[in-house]
Amino acid sequence: MKTVYPFLCFAVLIAAPLKLLGQPAPVRWEYQHPQMGTLFRLVLYAADSVQASEAARAAFRRIDSLNAILSDYLPDSELSVLSDHSDWAEVSPALEQVLRKAQEIASQTDGAFDITIGPLSRLWRRASRQGIFPDSLELAAAREKVGYQNLLIQPDKPLVKLLLPGMRLDAGGIAKGFAVDEAMAVLRSHGLPVALVDGGGDLLAGEAPPGKEGWEIEVVGDTVLVVTNRAVATSGAAYRHLDWQGRRYSHIIGPKEGLGVLHGKQVTVVAPSCMLADALATALSVEPGLETRLKAIYQDSSFRMGQAGEK
Ligand code: AMP
Ligand code: MG
User: Fold this and answer.
1) How far apart are the first and last CA of the chain?
2) What is the pTM of this model?
3) Any idea which ligand is nearest the CA of 271?
4) Where along the chain do its domains lie?
5) In this predicted model, what pLDDT tens digit does every residue of 181-213 receive, in sequence order?
């Protein structure tokens, strides 16, 4: 037996480094997929191309399925069908999660964020397409149908009801953020936590890339943030708007006045989830004065306000 020991020690010593060498270093992979009116991008680190592409495909499938639930452009999405419904309706877990978060943020922002904005956002989309200010009677009629208090969700059941005829839900201010969070969850479930999911500027960074402190994200004013396990979302009038009689009206609408916001501020929110960052960025674009209140509620988040287009 004595003669066997030195051999065993030698074998163990060799086996350990061989095991390390046997695991190839993770490589950076990048994938893109158009959805929700933007380009989703995944950056991930994986040792194996098959694992990387399977995970990316599954993440994009999840984003596609969320679009089929949350889009207000598709007449047969779950959101659109719900908007057509006047009685209590049962909703899917994804829609329930988005609606509950939207209602929470609506009440924290006194309705600056309002997922029932649909009648007004339809009017403003058409206005910006045609380059014409919306008709005042149509604006007044649309305003009557907007108000988050008229969207009811039962506290302990996935049952939802829209109180007024003609109400329309529009998840455009929150859905991309949710899709980003869900895509990251898919990558994690495939064993790939070192990843970045970018939904056209609303993004979630996972674990830091090898040898780095975090993911480098450029935001307003050429600032570079280095983040891990944080979401960054930006909103503002710069992206889509109507220019009318010397004024620039944003695609983000003040629910009370029914008008596209005019101030042109760009807002970046850093938060633990992209759904939260997305919705808060939209709310702050409507009402920048909410910053102090939101800072007190979301102490683990941060807010940057700047002029749109600032360099
Ligand atoms: P975002 O780019 O995330 O700020 O979202 C803008 C989109 O959210 C718009 O294109 C509308 O679809 C929707 N939206 C506009 N105004 C509001 C609002 N006050 N509250 C919630 N969603 C809004
Ligand atoms: Mg948003």
Assistant:
1) 75
2) 0.91
3) 2
4) 11-69+176-214
5) 999 999 999 999 999 999 998 999 999 999 999
